[in-house]
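Weekly structure sync, notes
Attendees: PL (lead), two postdocs, one rotation student
Agenda item 3: pending single-chain targets
PL asked that the sequence for the first pending target be pasted directly into the notes so everyone works from the same version. It is reproduced below exactly as submitted, 301 residues in total.
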Amino acid sequence: MTESWSGAAPARHFSLENSTAYAAWRDLRLANQPPSLADLIVEVERIDALSDKEHAALMDRIRRCNFAVYAERHPVPGRDDKNALRALGLRFGLTSLDCNTLADEDGVTPLSVHRDGPRSRYIPYTERPIAWHTDGYYNHPPRQVRALTLHCASPAAEGGANRLMDYELLYIMLRDEDPAHIAALTREDAMTIPGNDEDGIVRAATPGPVFWFDNDGRLAMRYTARARNVEWNADPAVQRAAAAIRRILDDPSAPVFQGRLEAGQGLVSNNVLHTREPFRDDPAHPRLLYRARYHDRIAGS
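Predicted structure, written out during the meeting:
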């Protein structure tokens, strides 16, 4: 049985046949783009008890570029940050945690350096850089990751910054260059993530599109820049589109935000494209972030 990706027809502005609706959405979207990362940071008292004003400020940023950064004014010493992160997710309508194999039993993953064991084989648990990707790009359709939250308990001694780019902006840049790129990237055989059977983690190969549409016709994306993690369809149109993605993401002038989460700061997002720079860990004060992935999209975004 073939798994279906798109849950509904795309919204009017995503239809390649409706250039008028697309142009109106595009112009509004670009006009509302935040000019800098500083414009995306919202100070809050406690992530597990957001005020209505704090929630509204974060939602304003999320609606404009699919993510926001919070900064707790007074991080609570000794607090259970995992419970606080789950509470934050609930405040944004996120209930369906992606309980992947390397996550803890509660579905929240502590991201720290592992020198041995199963986690040590995977880049998020090392000091190495992570290339452009969306989280859970290897998941099958029912379990695709639509939202991602991160909370920094302790940053790295040096490095570890992230670059972030809204996939809707990437869609605009690709479509403006050539609508054929979008046609190629919405094919259900555009790219395949090879299967995995290492360290007791068994996962079948995952063919699918790069862009697809959820049950409300909203845009979603899955992607990885790691060549060994993806097999692109040999069709020349797909190859050209994949090359266009790489070129745009590597362009210094691309609309990319860069910054590093400090203690008490975190990300609330609709699983936007992101990277992680290499870092140096201090064993006496190790880097620790908590990550929660969801199959839901942020409510109201």
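Discussion points:
- Residues 198 and 251 are 35 Å apart (CA to CA).
- The first strand starts at residue 41 and ends at 44.
Action: rotation student to compare against the earlier draft before next sync.
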